[in-house]
Amino acid sequence: MSNTPTRKHTALPKAQILIEALPWLTRHNGKTVVIKFGGNAMVDEDLKAAFAQDVVFLRHAGLNVVVVHGGGPQISAALDKAGIVSEFKAGLRVTTEDAMDVVRMVLAGQVQRELVGLLNQHGPLAVGLTGEDAHTITATKHLPEIDGELVDIGRVGEITAIDTGAIEALLADGRIPVVSSIARSQDDGHVYNVNADTAAAALAAALGAETLMVLTDVEGLYENWPDSDEVISRLTASQLEKLLPELSSGMVPKMEGCLHAVRGGVTTARVIDGRVQHSILLEIFTDEGIGTMVVADERKSGQEGESS
Ligand SMILES: Nc1ncnc2c1ncn2[C@@H]1O[C@H](COP(=O)(O)OP(=O)(O)O)[C@@H](O)[C@H]1O
Ligand SMILES: CC(=O)N[C@@H](CCC(=O)OP(=O)(O)O)C(=O)O
């Protein structure tokens, strides 16, 4: 007996998925997406490999993809080995001069190299750089305000300028830039540790990206965390701005970054669960998305800068 009917059954859903993706692919062809891969989402080898596949898929589907990576837990582990205690204030790592050497070594020499290697298993696509390269990210010393006082947290940088030239040249050449969140100051010549969410958001805005996608180790932004784990699926910039003072720890730079990106012209900023395999493709190709989406405030005309 012929097995044609069975083959038909298995082939159809696959074709369906590709066809459903077609409008999205058409709309986003040639657009830029900045994907922030958080250190907490890099939990195992399979997840990292799936991340690389998704990124390469998007590149081959005609998008300009820029990866900005984190590495918080990896830095903490290396600092621990070096006998340096990790301390965070306002969601940012207190970075002494010695700690800065470790931060730079882990981000640029370890995490970035690993991601470049994984992406390049699919072809000569990824090129790693740090914010220091070609003045991509310039920073000055950041003094966060905590309880009404400016606090010195060491070599932590506040971004003052972005030069997109090197990234744009790489994108024009069909490459996937992989950026480590380290910046140089033009004032004092020092190298600064920049939170990777903040760097990703600033790059997304400066590149005029369509989408900022932040992969982390939770499903999205939870309402009333840690008492509840109800994910807020959609927020306008104004709604997020009101919520910001209530947020804590790692979510502060993440959501501030999303707000900055959307206010800077990025159409949507999304926080998604990087622990789910192929979360990037799932977010893009499912109607509702799987995490938290931040969009610009609704305009009176009913037009909205949203396109999922
Ligand atoms: N409202 C919230 N919703 C979700 N997570 C929150 C919230 N507030 C704080 N968090 C914490 O933020 C963490 C994510 O930030 P972070 O640890 O910096 O991750 P990443 O390495 O991906 O940047 C979550 O694991 C969670 O513990
Ligand atoms: C100033 C500051 O806090 N810098 C971060 C940079 C890495 C980062 O942001 O990594 P995740 O995205 O994995 O958290 C740090 O030292 O941990």
Automatic annotation (TrEMBL):
Q: What is its EC number?
A: 2.7.2.8
Q: Name one Pfam family in it.
A: AA_kinase
**Site entry: Transition state stabilizer:** K36, K254
Give the matching InterPro entries.
AceGlu_kinase-like_sf, AcgluKinase_fam, ArgB, Asp/Glu/Uridylate_kinase, Glu/AcGlu_kinase, NAGK-C
What does the record give as the reaction this protein catalyses?
N-acetyl-L-glutamate + ATP = N-acetyl-L-glutamyl 5-phosphate + ADP
UniProt keyword list: Amino-acid biosynthesis, Arginine biosynthesis, ATP-binding, Cytoplasm, Kinase, Nucleotide-binding, Transferase
> Where would I find the Aspartate/glutamate/uridylate kinase domain in this sequence?
31-273
Cell location: Cytoplasm
Pathway stated in the Swiss-Prot or TrEMBL entry: Amino-acid biosynthesis; L-arginine biosynthesis; N(2)-acetyl-L-ornithine from L-glutamate: step 2/4
TM region positions: none
Q: Which Gene3D superfamilies match?
A: Acetylglutamate kinase-like (3.40.1160.10)
Q: Which GO terms describe its molecular function?
A: acetylglutamate kinase activity
List residues binding substrate. G71, G72, R93, N193
Q: Which function does this protein serve?
A: Catalyzes the ATP-dependent phosphorylation of N-acetyl-L-glutamate.
Concerning its family, UniProt says: Belongs to the acetylglutamate kinase family. ArgB subfamily.
In Swiss-Prot or TrEMBL terms, this protein is called Acetylglutamate kinase
Q: Which organism is it from?
A: Streptomyces vulcanius
**Gene from which the chain derives:** argB
